[in-house]
Amino acid sequence: MIDIPDFVYPKDTEGQALCPRCQKRIAQCNCPSFEPPKPKAPKIKPNIRLDKSGRKGKVVTLISALPRNEAYLKDLAKDLKVKTGSGGTFYIDDNGGVVELQGDHKTTAMEFFK
User: Fold this and answer.
1) pLDDT lower than 70: segments of the chain
2) Alpha-carbon dihedral 84, 85, 89, 93, rounded to 10 degrees
């Protein structure tokens, strides 16, 4: 077992852990958390649909109304392609970001965004 020195996690005379900032017991401490608050993930409501137009009858799954962030779209497209085991691409149009997946993966995409 590793001995953690008291100056890292101080204790009072009864052996209870103390807050390093205010030196009060942990249960009575009102100090803010040591960890910075994590940014909240943006809530998005994508439109998921199947499309065959201009593709010689082949079906693609279109996921539109996504944020216009190219790095986000690239990561999202990669995650979806791995999850579905298919090819695909992403692009930005007038209404926002769009991810295309080859094949009918509408149910998988809907589960992914829940």
Assistant:
1) 1-9, 33-37, 42
2) -10
